[in-house]
Design brief:
This protein has 297 residues and is α+β, with helices and mostly antiparallel strands. It is built from ten helices and eleven strands. The protein is globular.
Length: 297
């Protein structure tokens, strides 16, 4: 819940975050709320006498090229009416100011399932945007995630990691259906406002096989097999593809890699901030991944 602040307190807290941004030079701060607490990025809701804003603050380790990448992707999505517009990026202060949707709600699994054609239509539009941004290499990304764990890597995790590398190798032999993918379609990043679905937090957005977004959406919202098949059929229809355009073997392979990415990401986050929620999420995702892998053993 947002904290109402007296003017003097609000000024000191908000300007600790924003005072050096020219964007807020003529604004009177009214309200501040921290929305996310990530190790690499933190997001705040800032209300001033001139409007609502989402302000992202990046850690030192987030290079300017990555901030620019996020800005480009969100700009393109906003121009297509899929995301709130980014308003200002200050690389010196490592801050990105975006429009905020005051009446937005995080999308529940029930709402998403009921209005699946609408969200698939918007996801399809995102995938077809033309943006100059890097392409995902699953093999290299797995190695990057492992390197973040350094000395915390457990020998008991090595066999599972090697299975993930083998999945990444196998993926190379399938035709790629590349698009601009969000890569983090969890309920915190899919908003409902003014009768539309909106996407936020383009930190991991990049060119990738569209199956990564479809698998991410299905897994994060806990869709069963029936709903998942409906999701895939709706996507194929939205793209005007033939009914068998998405190879089921490739999709299942990508789904396993998606869970593998999440498992390693949660482990790295837990290492950085020792948050027990990340430790629990890593353990849960690992179990889900092992279960999926056992189904094809």
């Amino acid at each position: 819940m947002a904290t109402e602040l007296p003017a003097a307190t609000a000024t000191s807290l908000i300007w600790a975050l924003c005072q050096r941004l020219e964007f807020f030079a003529e604004h009177q701060p009214l309200q501040l709320e921290q929305l996310t607490f990530g190790q690499l990025t933190q997001t705040f809701r800032v209300k001033t006498d001139q409007g609502h804003y989402a302000v992202r603050h990046y850690a030192d380790s987030v290079l300017p090229v990555r901030r620019q990448q996020e800005l480009r992707c969100q700009h393109a999505a906003a121009a297509a009416g899929l995301a709130p517009a980014p308003l200002c990026l200050n690389n010196h202060q490592r801050m990105l100011v975006c429009e905020y949707l005051p009446a937005a709600e995080h999308t529940s699994a029930q709402r998403l399932e009921l209005q699946l054609p609408a969200v698939i239509s918007r996801l399809s539009a995102l995938h077809q945007l033309k943006v100059q941004t890097p392409a995902l290499d699953p093999w290299l990304y797995l190695q990057h995630l492992k390197q973040q764990l350094n000395m915390e890597w457990l020998s008991t995790d090595e066999p599972l990691y090697q299975q993930l590398l083998e999945l990444a190798r196998q993926l190379q032999f399938f035709p790629q259906q590349t698009g601009l993918c969000h890569m983090d379609l969890n309920p915190a990043n899919v908003l409902w406002s003014d009768g539309k679905f909106w996407l936020i937090d383009f930190e991991y957005c990049q060119l990738a096989d569209i199956c990564f977004d479809l698998a991410s959406l299905s897994w994060n919202y806990g869709f069963n097999a029936e709903v998942e098949q409906r999701l895939l059929a709706l996507y194929v229809k939205a793209r005007g593809w033939q009914t068998d355009a998405i190879d089921p073997d490739k999709y299942q392979l990508v789904k396993r890699l998606t869970l593998g990415f999440a498992w390693l990401w949660y482990k790295a986050e837990q290492l950085q901030n020792r948050d027990p929620r990340h430790q629990e999420a890593a353990a849960t995702t690992r179990r889900q991944l092992l279960q999926l892998l056992s189904q094809t053993a």
